[in-house]
Amino acid sequence: MKRSLLPLILVLFFVGCQSKNNVINLYSYNAMPKVSTSLKSVYIEGVKDSRTNDNLVGVIKANDGSIKEYVVLENDLSLWLKDAITKELNSIGISVKADPSVDASVLLDIKEFSAVLEGFDKDNLKASANVEVIVTKGNTIIKNQVSQKQSEFVVMKKGSAFSPFMQNLLNDIVKKSAQQIKNSI
Predict the structure, then answer these.
(1) Are strands 67-73 and 56-61 parallel, antiparallel or unpaired?
(2) Which residues lie below 8 Å from residue 157, measured CB to CB, with a gap of 6+?
(3) What is the DSSP annotation of 90-146?
(4) Model's pTM, two decimal places?
(5) Distance CA 50, CA 159 (A)
(6) Is 70 exceeded by the pLDDT of residue 41?
């Protein structure tokens, strides 16, 4: 009896430890309403994604450094970012209009959004994001780089570890970008 259970237990162990989830989904951005109000309004011209592969957001590396798995994003990052920036701007008192004849127009350019999960050392999951915020106010163009790196330790080397980590990184980028827009108008 014990011999017949051992293969079953081993199969269940290996199946349970395999990485199954290598597609992550970003949840809708929730802006926390602030008390400040402004009479300013902006037009979001668009969000450009300049990354070479706009679906790939991360890799899981084997012990030898080779890529074991790719982690892809289910969402369209440009659409997600536009929606999130709109919500955050509204929450800090800046209205987003569909009419380009407002105080300023904004163009966002996603330069980087990627992560690497490698090894079992401390801070084995590392990510970085970079968004260029271009604010046009009359004849003045103001360009700002909003970037952030972060890292943390994760126990299981699988795609699902990326989801909350990358979501938090993007939430920080959205808040910083909205603040840059507010400071520029």
Answers:
(1) antiparallel
(2) 19, 60, 68, 117, 120, 124
(3) HHTT-EEES-S-SSEEEEEEEEEEEEEEESSSTT-EEEEEEEEEEEEETTEEEEEEE
(4) 0.81
(5) 23
(6) yes
∠ Cα 178 27 67 (to 5°): 100
The residue type found at 100 is P
pLDDT digits (tens, 9 = 90+) for 126-174: 999 999 999 999 999 999 999 999 999 988 777 778 888 999 999 999 9
Question: What is residue 32's DSSP assignment?
Answer: P
- Residue 117 pairs in a beta bridge with 60, 125
Domains and CATH numbers, the chain: 43-184 (3.40.50.10610)
Structure tokens at 158: 């699988």
**Tokens 């290598």 label which residue?**
22
Contact of 125 with 115, CB cutoff 8 Å: yes
pLDDT tens-digit map of 67-117:
999 999 999 999 999 999 999 999 999 999 998 888 899 999 999 999 999
Closest CA to 131 of 121, 142, 144: 144
- The amino acid that residue 99 corresponds to is D
Q: Range with the lowest mean pLDDT among 7-11, 36-40, 117-121?
A: 7-11
110: nearest Cα among 147, 71, 162: 147
Estimate the share of the chain in helix, then strand, then coil, as percent rounded to the nearest 5. Answer: 30, 35, 30
Q: Is the pLDDT reported for residue 48 higher than 90?
A: yes
